[in-house]
Amino acid sequence: MSEAVENLYGFSQRQKDAYWDDMVKKFELDMLTNERGWEERGREEGLQEGRQEGRKEGKKEARLSVAKNMLKKGIDKSTIADCTGLSIEELDSLQV
């Protein structure tokens, strides 16, 4: 800013320094708050993704468990694959 514009407001140098100090502090606080907001958003997105992945894994484990029980009862793999959505290769890899 030009000296003429700065003097229009009648601030002393001390007042100007205090003003700019306050502006810098506000800027830093805004940046910190914004950063925390992004961190929180990232954390929430990570939790949601983790929950979705956990549900997906849980469903897979349940299908594998059902498939094992069906194999123990002597049900053919083709029927088990149709009922569980598992592939024949996945069924072949199960320890019964």
Task: Give a nutshell description of this structure.
The chain is mostly helical and 96 residues long.
Structure characteristics:
96 residues, 0% strand
Task: Provide a descriptive summary of the structure in words.
- The structure is a single chain.
- The protein is mainly α.
- The protein has one domain (3-92).
- 82% of the residues lie in helices and 0% in strands.
- It is built from four helices and no strands.
- It has helices at residues 3-8, 13-72, 77-84, 88-92.
- The longest helix is centred in the middle third of the chain and has 60 residues, at 13-72.
- The chain starts with a helix and ends with a helix.
- The model has no long low-confidence stretch (mean pLDDT 84).
Count the E strands: 0
Low-confidence stretches: none
Question: What class would the helix/strand composition place it in?
Answer: mainly alpha
* Tally of contiguous helical segments: 4
Q: If you average the pLDDT, what whole number results? A: 84
H/E element string? Answer: HHHH
> How large, in whole angstroms, is the Cα Rg?
32 Å
Overall shape: it is rod-shaped
Helix content: over 70%
Domains, number: 1
Main pleated sheet? none
- Strand fraction equals under 5%
